[in-house]
Amino acid sequence: MAREVDVVVIGGGAVGENAADYAVRSGLSAMIVEAELLGGECSYWACMPSKALLRTGHAVAAVQRLPGTTADFDPAAVLARRDRFTSNWNDEGQVEWARSAGIDVVRGVGRLAGERTVEVDGPAGPLTVTARRAVVVCTGSVPVRPPVPGLDTVRTWSSRDATSAKEIPARLGVLGGGVVGSELSQAFQRLGAQVTLLEQGPRVLPPFEPFAGERVAAALRARGVDVRLGHALDGVEPAGDAVVICVGDERIAVDELLVATGRRPNTDSVGLETVGLRPGERLEIDDTGLVQGVDGQWLYAAGDVTGRAMLTHQGKYAARITGTVIGARSIGEELDTRPWGEHVTTADHGAVPQVVFTDPEVASAGLTEAQARAAGLDVRVVDLPIAVGGSSLQADGYDGAARMVVDEGRGVLVGMTFVGQDVAEMLHAATVAIVGEVPMHRLWHAVPAYPTISEVWLRLLEAYRTPG
Q1: pTM value?
Q2: Which of its termini does the chain have fewer beta carbons within 10 Å around, N or C?
């Protein structure tokens, strides 16, 4: 069988959906090729189910920080609520949305087969699709498994297994202290598991400001998570229905072992070799999403496969721009590629927001102090505890911290990190300030409402304006 369409998107996660949607909005026809569930990792195995597993425990902990209150929860109800957010791993609603948006959905494994050509191996038989305008690769990322002796001889959990678990293990081992490892350690501890978290580096959440990882590790330990930093896993071995973790001379038995040691672009089987690229490597793109090293302005990529900011919201942002770029090029429209222009992903380079949904939350936007200094900026850093009227109302003994990173050469904010209960909703203000390059003297006139946690902005600006 053979088909022809303007734009073929390989991969129907949130990124691929946006690329196809914005191509259709630009007046083109679009097809998504997806082998699993339309909506992808974020909808069914990552963002949504993991946050559903975390939210109830966070809410109960917040209530317990207020005097005269009691709260508890049923783990089974948490799992049931998680199931509702994943639509019980049924994507009929997503497919209905795509078709209502004018997007054709084809089930099967799609791979490149030469210029503007995609071969699909699906339940309806083989299909060859020719793209009149563009092919967009949005195949996401896959987990990285570390070279630990014995790891391939035991049963392990991936993040998918953890977020779709039907029961809470009595003992959970977590290998890796990044975002996934930290969040799921806390989720399962609050759901009743005894959790051991091993991170070979000196702190959890290594890409963030050091104080963020320190505070999250302290909070995990305070709740009973056995956090072990600077501990490489020497090996694992089966022990009946359990798994034994070997750390030096110590042997720790767990019922499940979650391997959360990072992800890499999923390009092994996309057919890159048919267009002169190397399988298994991230796709190098320019800021319009155009893949480098392929002639003809027809091959694009967005999301995790590019190895840029491997976050759902950043991937969707890139996909929106890429879909718009393809539409503009199809009618010969001149692209606006100035910084912050309509057709470039400028935000990928220093204006990325991210939230770690632990308790305390970590909310960051832009550059860390180390990143700003490495970029050669004239940096001034302001550190303050979050101790304002709004935070004291939010919780007794509220304990939070904030860091502002300022480029003194331009007099603008380039980085912000908040750590504390309920700080995530403050993040967009920082993102707007960074993207808008709002001068520090102008931010002084952005008055935070009282009494809210956002009043920490005033305290940071006061400290910044104080000489010395």
Answers
A1: 0.96
A2: C
Q: What is the mean pLDDT of residues 28-34?
A: 98
How much is the average pLDDT of 223-252? 94
Do 2-45+86-142+264-347 and 145-261 show the same overall fold? yes
Whether the Cβ atoms of residue 163 and residue 54 lie closer than 8 Å to each other: no
Token code pair at residue 123: 């339940």
Handedness of CA 70, 75, 80, 82 (dihedral sign): positive
User: b/e for 76-110, b at 16 or more Cβ within 10 A?
Assistant: eebbeebeebbbeeebeebbebbeeeebbbbbbbb
Cβ–Cβ < 8 Å for 271, 199: no
pLDDT computed for residue 35 by the predictor: 97
Strands 242-247 and 235-239: antiparallel
Q: What is the pLDDT of residues 70-84, one digit of tens each?
A: 899 999 999 999 999
Find the DSSP H helices in 309-349. 312-330
- CA–CA separation, 350 vs 341, rounded Å? 15
Cα separation, 78 vs 180, in Å, equals 18
Instruction: Judge whether residue 467 has pLDDT over 90.
Output: no
Q: Which pair of structure tokens corresponds to residue 145?
A: 């498994």
Residue 224's CB is within 10 A of a number of other CB atoms, namely 11
**β pairing state of 242-247 and 250-254:** antiparallel
- CA 442 vs. chain centroid, Å, equals 31
Please tell me the CATH code under which domain 2-45+86-142+264-347 is placed. Answer: 3.50.50.60
Query: Per-domain residue ranges for the chain?
Result: 2-45+86-142+264-347, 145-261, 360-465
Q: In this predicted structure, what is the pLDDT of residue 468?
A: 67
Please check whether residue 192 is in contact with residue 79, taking contact to mean a CB–CB distance below 8 angstroms: no
pLDDT, tens digit, for every residue of 381-408?
999 999 999 999 999 999 999 999 999 9
**Nearest Cα residue to 10 out of 35, 41, 46:** 35
Which pair of structure tokens corresponds to residue 12? 């129907």
Instruction: Specify the pLDDT at position 231.
Output: 81
Answer whether residue 159 shows pLDDT above 70: yes
